[in-house]
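Reopening this ticket.

The earlier resolution said the output was attached, but the attachment link was broken on my side. Pasting everything inline this time so it's all in one place.
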Amino acid sequence: MRKVVLRWKTTSLQGAQEISELLEICERMEILGHLAINEKSVTQLAEIKLKQGQGIEKISNLENFKLIEVHEENDDGVLVSLLCTHPLAISAIELSNIHIHPPYGISEEKGMELRISGLSNSVSRFIKLIRMVLPPDNISVQTFQKEENGSIWESILTDRQIEVLQHAMRKGFYRIDRNVTLKQLADEMNMARSTYGEHIRRAEVEIMNKVMKDLE
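Inline output:
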């Protein structure tokens, strides 16, 4: 098994027409989860921070994205479900034995990052395809073993997932007699409740997957 992180600088994305058009509409788009997957599309749960003067309905003007529903909106962004038919997403679906790990996304400030894991041969094929379509600026292979100066969880969870879990732990969310709600925690971090909850759920899935592998 291999886990690989692919990163693109914003300047490297400017040659991709639809991504450039997306960044004209929003400052950032973060895919929090996959709600449904079939051979032709992916239904995504996304949080989008729009640029001033832009409307969320403009997402549907893009060739490979269609707005399905707006769920919540606050200062942190708009939580929506999208139908995605982008070639990168379809390629990942068509290749067996690989998994794309949410959350992932694109931002005007940081560029784009994608985390994938799977069988070595399948991951290698996907990377070869990516290099032809949209060459990454950086490709790093992460290990599931604990490193000398780091934690194993830093290679499994995203920075945002760790931040949300640490906050939930500090506030007693995982105590048996807890008296704090997701809504309260989300408000403290200036996030939508569903966004905060999705980060926690995805982190819990990654943690349990690691635990089960260790128990096998």
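Reporter confirms the inline version is readable. The two ends are 15 Å apart (CA to CA). Residues 144-149 have pLDDT under 50 and may be disordered.
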